[in-house]
């Protein structure tokens, strides 16, 4: 299918409409068509996106890879309802949407015209199949100052490395939102030899390369009951990192043949499987950079309390410093051994997105929004792996793009929004940092706070003794923990931001308990996290 045709279909099917009766598909009956659950996302003051995806037959990854499949029809009509109450006595809007084979039988409905700062219930149905009832909410009205926002931020859920007990515990956190910061899927086949980590579970999928492969990977992950429950509890804001496509890819550069086509397939599958607006596709194609892009960098306001700037540090980044094209990225680089590291032309965001972030920081300063949250994929603060004067840095985090990081730091310093907090993931470790105006100058002022969350399931290969050594080498790092999996909760009020790091007893156990590793607070007007 032509990409433009696909985008036209996505925009048409996401419109919240009532189809005339003659346009409905013949219903399939006596089938379980919703094994992948539901989700909602991208809340605005008057609406949100509702998502589901239909699947018939055995779940990919749970049966041998060559098991024959019964394809669904090319178009199916799916009903949806939004109600004030869990029993759907008071339905506020409803309609039908088309689930098309061309979009993986995914359904996106962009609902509008609802009350601000309000919870709703929703469900989908087809034939005699009905989804479980789920909750979602709208954002507060512009100009209002909500007294509280509670959200979790989470990343990195490699299927075979852990169970998703963290998501069950999130149900007890009274969350308004979940922020997903990347590595929703991992593209790998199962390891051929026994791995260094404990296997939590297995799957039968091949390494993902085609659109069908990526669709299957999302289908498998989305069958997890604890993950589904977290999607049913509140809206999610989603971004991606590398493993939604390929480990350590950078822009249009990866390993193996036909990488741009592989990336385009992976991006389409991401759109299909996430509660994103259709503008993610249309604006992607409009040419914010590169071939067949999907636009995931976006802003989401919570009244005057907080604005999220969701960045995309993968799609537009330059190749890692001293990475040979077509080969894997170097793990670490040094300024002495790799002059390219310091090249000011290199960017992790791309020039257009850098300008877009700068513009957003200026808007936040002008509007007086209380908290500016720069939500992105990986650790932002410097981690020099050596004691000074020696230096070595990870090539794929912001440390691999130091000039670009300094431009963003200068933009935060110049625009000076009221409070700036960086959120990240990717490294499978909890890091809490004071963000300095210039990491090369330890005496420079603290201008922001950083909370980089650990993985909810993916293993870390870094020993805790090593994480602590790195923290000792970098005094702006207040906490570095590689040994625990989990998620973080942010409770944001006009007066303070509190981040609580929640960690699982044992990620291999689906019923694992949870505990608090540490809490940090940022006071309004006082940049930098303080331990509670
Ligand atoms: Fe990861
Ligand atoms: Ca990653």
Can you walk through the features of this model?
The structure is a single chain. With 532 residues, this protein is α+β, with helices and mostly antiparallel strands. It contains nine helices and 24 strands. The protein has helices at 3-14, 165-170, 211-222, 225-233, 259-273, 279-285, 351-367, 402-415, 464-473; strands spanning 38-44, 47-53, 75-83, 91-100, 106-111, 119-126, 129-130, 134-137, 149-154, 177-180, 236-238, 298-302, 306-310, 332-333, 371-375, 393-394, 420-424, 430-436, 446-452, 477-481, 486-492, 496-504, 514-523, 530-531. The strands form five sheets. The protein has a seven-stranded mixed β-sheet. The chain has a seven-stranded mixed β-sheet with strand order 12-13-15-17-19-18-20. Strands 3, 4, 6, 7 and 8 form a five-stranded antiparallel β-sheet that branches. α2 (165-170) links the parallel β9 (149-154) and β10. α1 runs antiparallel to α6, α3 packs parallel to α5 and α7 runs parallel beside α8 (402-415). It starts with a helix and ends with a strand. 51% of the residues are buried. The mean pLDDT is 95. The protein binds fe (iii) ion and calcium ion. Fe (iii) ion is lined by residues 156, 183, 243, 426, 428, 455, 458.
């Amino acid at each position: 299918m032509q990409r433009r045709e696909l985008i036209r279909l996505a925009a048409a099917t996401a419109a919240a409409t009532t189809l005339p009766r003659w346009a409905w598909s013949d219903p399939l009956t006596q089938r379980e068509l919703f094994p992948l659950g539901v989700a909602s996302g991208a809340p605005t003051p008057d609406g949100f996106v509702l998502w589901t995806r239909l699947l018939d037959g055995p779940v990919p990854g749970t049966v041998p890879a060559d098991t024959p499949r019964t394809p669904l029809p090319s178009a199916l009509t799916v009903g949806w309802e939004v109600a004030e109450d869990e029993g759907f006595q008071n339905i506020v809007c409803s309609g039908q949407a088309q689930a098309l084979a061309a979009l993986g039988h995914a359904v996106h409905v962009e609902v509008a015209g609802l009350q601000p700062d309000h919870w709703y219930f929703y469900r989908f149905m087809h034939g005699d199949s009905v989804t479980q009832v789920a909750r979602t909410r709208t954002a507060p009205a512009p100009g209002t100052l909500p007294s509280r926002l509670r959200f979790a931020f989470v990343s990195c859920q490699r299927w075979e490395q852990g169970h998703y007990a963290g998501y069950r515990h999130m149900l007890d956190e009274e969350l308004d939102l979940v922020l997903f910061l990347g590595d929703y899927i991992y593209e790998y086949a199962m390891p051929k030899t026994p791995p260094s980590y404990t296997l939590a579970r297995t799957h039968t999928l091949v390494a993902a390369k085609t659109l069908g492969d990526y669709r299957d990977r999302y289908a498998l992950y989305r069958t997890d009951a604890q993950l589904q429950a977290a999607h049913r509890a509140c809206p999610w804001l989603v971004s991606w990192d590398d493993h939604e496509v390929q480990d350590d890819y950078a822009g249009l550069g990866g390993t193996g043949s036909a990488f741009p086509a592989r990336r385009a397939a992976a991006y389409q599958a991401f759109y299909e499987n996430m509660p994103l607006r259709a503008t993610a596709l249309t604006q992607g194609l409009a040419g914010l950079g590169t071939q067949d892009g999907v636009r995931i960098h976006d802003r989401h306001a919570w009244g005057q309390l907080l604005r999220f700037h969701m960045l995309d540090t993968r799609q537009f980044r330059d190749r890692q410093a001293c990475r040979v094209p077509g080969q894997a990225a170097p793990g670490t680089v040094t300024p002495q051994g790799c002059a390219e590291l310091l090249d000011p032309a290199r960017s992790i965001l791309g020039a257009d997105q850098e300008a877009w972030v700068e513009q957003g920081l200026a808007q936040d300063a002008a509007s007086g929004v209380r908290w500016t949250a720069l939500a992105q994929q990986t650790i932002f603060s410097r981690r020099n792996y050596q004691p000074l004067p020696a230096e070595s840095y990870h090539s794929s985090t912001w440390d691999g793009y130091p000039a670009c990081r300094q431009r963003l730091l200068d933009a935060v310093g110049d625009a000076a929004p009221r409070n700036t907090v960086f959120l990240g993931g990717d490294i499978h470790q909890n890091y809490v940092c004071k963000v300095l105006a210039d990491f090369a100058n330890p005496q420079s002022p603290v201008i922001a706070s950083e909370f980089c969350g650990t993985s909810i399931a993916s293993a870390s290969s870094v020993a805790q003794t090593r994480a602590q050594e790195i923290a000792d080498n970098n005094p702006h790092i207040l906490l570095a923990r590689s040994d625990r999996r989990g998620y973080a909760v942010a409770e944001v009020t006009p007066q303070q931001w509190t981040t609580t790091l929640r960690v699982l007893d044992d990620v291999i156990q689906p019923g694992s308990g949870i505990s608090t590793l540490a809490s940090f607070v940022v006071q309004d007007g006082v940049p930098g996290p303080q331990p509670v």
